[in-house]
Amino acid sequence: MNGMKADFIPVLSLAPMAGMTDWPMRVLCYRMGAEYACSEMVSAVGFMCAKPDNLVYRQLLKVHQEETATACQLFGKDPTVMGEAAQRITELGRFASLDINMGCPARKVVSIGEGSALLLNPEQAYRVMEAVKRNTTLPVTIKTRLGFDGDSMNATLLGEAAQSLGFQWMALHGRTRQQQYAGHADYEAIASVRQRLSIPVIANGDVFEPEDAPRILKETGCSGLMIGRGAMGNPWLFRGARQCLRGEAVTPVSLEERIAVARLHMEWMTEYKGERLGVLEMRKHIGHYISGIRGAGALRREMNAAKTKQEMDDLLERLLDDKEELE
Domains in the chain, please, with CATH? Predict the structure, then answer.
C-alpha cells in the first residue's frame, strides 16, 4: 500500500474507536463515502513485546485489499518505543500513514501517562511525535483533544509541534479529557485552535446526522470532519453527509438496506474472527444497526443471547417478516 499524497486532506473520515473500527467496519464506511479511516488503537509497547504470531496484533493490524487510505493509530509515551513501533509498522507495508493518539480518555490509558495524558506534558508529546516522524517514511498525523481539563488547554501547543515536524494534519476532538463524551463538542474552541495553526485541522465530535457535516465545517472552518460514534451501525452517515455537502437530498435508508449491510458485516466478521468471537463482537454492532426500529429493544436482548451466526441471521430475518405483517 502506498502512502498518502502530500496534499491529501480527507473531507470525511472515520475516527478510530477501540473495539469497533476493525477492517469490516472500515470497509463498509469506505463504500459509503469515507475517504480515510484509522485502525483501532495499537499500543506501541504491546506491539513491540508481542510474539510474531500474536493473534490480537494480527487482527489489529489486518488491512483489507479495498483499503487505500487507512492509517495505523499508535499510542504510547516512550519516544524510543514509539519510534521502533513506527518503523516496524511502516515495514509491514499495509498502511497509508501513521496516526499518533494523544486524545484517548480511557482511564487505563491515561493512568500510565498515555493517550490524552500527554496533553499535560507537551514537551513529552513533542519527543514522541519527533521519534515517530524520524522512524517512518509514511505521512504522520495526530489526534488529540482540546486539553486534559480546563487548566491544560494545550491542543494548540501540540498542533504547533505537529506542524513544525511536517505532520499531514491534526484531528481535534472538541472536548477535554475531563469531559469524556459529556456535553457538546465545542466547535468555537476548535475554530480558535485552527486559526492559530497553519497545519490543516480536522474537526471531530458529535457528527450524528448528515446535516451536521456542512454546519460543523462552517462553524469551525476546518478542512474536514472525523466521524466516530455516529457511524456505529450507520455507515450511511458518510453517504448522507456527502450529499448534504453537495446540496443534494439525503437518500433514506430502508429497513432492507439496514438488514443487508448488517448481514454483510456479520459475514465478514465471522470470517475474520471465527464464528464464536465474530458473533460476540457483532452483538454491539447489531444493536446500533437496529436502533430506532420497532421492537429493537426485545430483539437486542435476543441478539445478546445468540451464539451462532445462523441464530443472529434468523433474528434479523424476523425484522423483515414483522415489517411485512405490519404492511
Answer: 12-245 (3.20.20.70), 255-326 (1.10.1200.80)
